[in-house]
Amino acid sequence: MAMAPSHTGIGIRRFFTTEGVHPYDEVTWELRDARITNYRDGSVAFEQTDVEFPTTWSLNATNIVAQKYFRGTLGEPGREHSLKQVIDRVADTITQWGIEGGYFVDDH
């Protein structure tokens, strides 16, 4: 009869990134303005200036993420202004849940 393994976490191997290089450094970023206008009258429904996104992202993707997923009150200093902040927040939350739940073999 086989013995159960002494640890039950999952291991995750590096695949899309290079060791020693921050993933954000492998992407070209730019500041741009996110603006959504009312199609009926042209009025501005949402605007946030100087938001940071990859150059490969469309303006439509920028507008949606800035409006729907940036945390904080628009116009306040603590509001997120970069996709990097959103990615860090979400990844850190999922990582913390995995650690607390004992899902990972190690903390790398």
Describe this structure in words.
With 108 residues, this protein is of the alpha+beta class. It has one domain. It contains 2 helices and 2 strands. The protein has a two-stranded antiparallel sheet with strand order 1-2. Strand 1 and strand 2 form a beta hairpin. It is elongated, with a radius of gyration of 20 Å.
Report on the biggest sheet: 2 strands, antiparallel
Radius of gyration: 20 Å
Shape: elongated
If you average the pLDDT, what whole number results? 92
Number of E strands: 2
Task: Summarize the model shown.
With 108 residues, the chain is of the alpha+beta class.
Descriptors:
108 residues; two-stranded antiparallel ribbon; 2 helices
